[in-house]
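Q: We require from you a single protein entry containing the residue sequence and its fold in C-alpha cell form, and nothing else.
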Amino acid sequence: IQRQDGTGMGWRFWRFTAPRALANVAQTALQRIDVLLVAALAGLAPAAAYSVAGRFVVVGQLANGAISQAVQPRLAEALAVGDLPTARRLYQTATGWLILTSWPLHLTVLQYAGDYLGLFGAHYRQAVPVVRVLALAMLLATGCGMVDMVLAMGGRTVWNLVNVLAALTAMVAVDLLLIPALGIAGAALGLACAVAVNNLLPLAQIVVTMRLHPFGGDTLAAALLTSVSFGAVPAALHASPPWLAIGAGAVAYLLGVVLLRRRLPLTPLSRRV
C-alpha cells in the first residue's frame, strides 16, 4: 500500500478549511457590523429600532441551519464522488424544505410589518420600511437555498470567502453612503445588497462550474403554495383582522400541503435520491 504524503495531505486540509474559517468570521461581521454603523452614524435609538426590526431574520435562519446540518453529509458525499444528479436532487429538495418552513414567516412579516413591530412597542413602528426590505431580501436568500454550503462542499472554499468579503464590502459601502441620508432604511438597503451578493454570486458560480441549481419542480411548487397561502390570501383579506387573514392563510397552506403532498418535497431523502 502506498503511503500518502502527510505534508501534502495537511496542505490540502488547510487549503480547504482555512478559507472556510475566515469566511465564518466575515459572515459574523456581516451579521453585526450594520448595527454598529447605524449607532455611529444615526444614533443609539435608531440602532435599537433597527436591531428589533431584524429579529425575525434570526428566527428564519434556524430552519436554514437545521436543514443544512441534515443535508450536508450526503451532499458532501455526492459531490466527492461526482454524483451530480444526486447532489442536484439533494440541493433542490433542501431548498424546497427551506421555502416551506421560512417563507410563511417572511411573507407574514412583510405584510404585517407594523403589527409585528407593535409587539415590541409603538415607537418601533418607525422601522416598518426596514422590516419590509429585509423580508424581501430573505425571500431571495431562502429561494437560493444553502448555496454557500454547496459551493464549499464542492471544494471551492476560497470562492466562498471571496463572496462573503464582497458582500461585506458592499454592505459597508452602501451603509456609509445611505445611512446619513436615509437612516435605518439605508442600513436595511445595505444589508439587502449584501444578501443579494452573498447569494446570487455563488449561485452563478455553481450554475456555471458545477451545473447545479435549486430550481426544481418541487421547489417551484413549494414557492407557489407559500406565496398563495401567506401572500395572496392575506392580501385578499387585508380589511380583516390580521389574525383572521393569517389563520385563513395557514388553513390554505395546510390544505395545499395535503393536496400537493406528492408534488412537494416531503418524502424522505432516502426515497428521493
